[in-house]
Amino acid sequence: MRVWLAAALMLGVPAGAQGQSSTAQTEPEVTIRDCPENRYCTPERQAERRRVYDNAEAEALARRQATLRRVSFIDRNGKDMVSIGFVREPGRTPYVEVHTPRFDNGIEPEPLLASLSDSNWRRIDALLWEFRQLPKPSQLQDDSGVIRVCADGLGVFIETVDELPAKRAFGQPWAGVRVERQADHSCNGGAMIVYAGILADLAFDHFPECQSLPDVRYGASNTLRLCHSFLGDRLAAAEAYHFMKQHGYFEKLPAGQDQGTLFADASSDSFARFRDEIGERSVNLWKVHGLHADKVEMIANLTEHFWGAAARELGGNEDAGSMRVAEMTLQMVRTDSGFRIHSYTIGESRLIHFEE
Asked: What is the annotated signal peptide range for this record (predicted)?
């Protein structure tokens, strides 16, 4: 630093002005390191991913001299699940942010956002280089001739932004900024899948409002996805959701089991009516809103599917099928035993016919 200031004075240029190097003005180098799932890396797919997550473009962050570690998780059908980004921008404390795709109505919940400690940032910053030193995964057919088959899996798309190493030429402390993109898939057995999972675990530790949620498939990434979808007081929302999940509410309510404890009045009759009104319909939760510390609202669709003759009788196509949907709203309140159902309403059913 002293040498740098002395050089600036010798040249007759203010240190601050000389320190404003060409980094911010130079277009970043962009590299695709490895993309076995090429469909994840096309410019069109990248643009669509930024749109659904409302994420800043990596090149834009590079021009601001930010450092970035961002991973986007992709399900087995190629659908975006959740985006987790660790960012350090000039003049701002490093932070982690979580985004999920916008709701069907275009509304996106507030992102999960938390500051990072120095030790956590250093760990995240170094982790990438550790994993890039690992060998590439084995092929689907090994030396013994055994062919491995992977019928399901999880994809990841990783973006990083870093300043390039210092040039040796005096007066040019940074060569520029580098943007790198990389994809991997769990079926490939690649190290970057493990790297992405560790980033998700590190991110999860920074959001206490999500800690009460049960473990879900795909681990921390999917738990963060679920937590991000909650509105309002996420701490209360997660607690109420966990209670209902424990009691099988989001699958099928057990027909022969007394679960009166689901209700604030601890009434077996309340549960029996609730179970009978739901019947054989599937419960598809789409909104959990923490109204305040002691009250949570949940909204779900109750759906019935019809095929063949049953669909035809309803005016639908036998092969494509029909669906009857009704909206259910639950009001959850906190009791001495935790969150329970205070009241519920089920709206009128509407019929949907599918086309072939």
From this structure: 1-19
Tell how far CA 341 is from the center of its chain. Answer: 28
| Residue 77 backbone dihedrals phi, psi, to 5 degrees | -95, 5
Q: Which residue has the tokens 């789409």?
A: 286
Q: Residue 241 phi/psi, 5° resolution?
A: -60, -45
Paired residues of 338 in beta bridges: 335
Which residues, other chains included, contact 285 with Cβ-Cβ below 8 Å and sequence gap of 6+? Answer: 250, 298, 299, 300
Q: How confident is the model over 272-295, as a mean pLDDT?
A: 89
Q: Please enumerate in sequence order all residues whose Cβ is within 8 A of that of 191, keeping only pairs 6 or more positions apart, or say none.
A: 131, 132, 134, 137, 184
Give the pLDDT confidence of 114-142 residue by residue, as tens digits: 999 999 999 998 898 888 777 665 554 45
Query: 296, 339 in Cβ contact below 8 A?
Result: yes
Q: Other CB atoms closer than 10 Å to residue 227's CB: what's the count?
A: 26
Pair 208, 227: CB distance under 8 Å = no
More confident residue, 246 or 140: 246
| Angle, CA of 232, 235 and 237, to the nearest 5° | 60
**Cα distances (Å, whole numbers) of residue 139 to 135, 152, 154, 328:** 12, 17, 17, 49
Domains in the chain: ranges and CATH? 2-229 (no CATH), 231-353 (3.10.450)
Beta strands in the chain (DSSP E): 29-34, 67-74, 80-88, 95-99, 112-115, 155-163, 177-185, 231-232, 282-292, 295-306, 322-335, 338-346, 350-353
AA letter at 63? R
The candidate with the shortest Cα–Cα distance to 202, out of 96, 88, 74, is 96
Least Cα distance to 159 among 71, 52, 29 occurs for 71
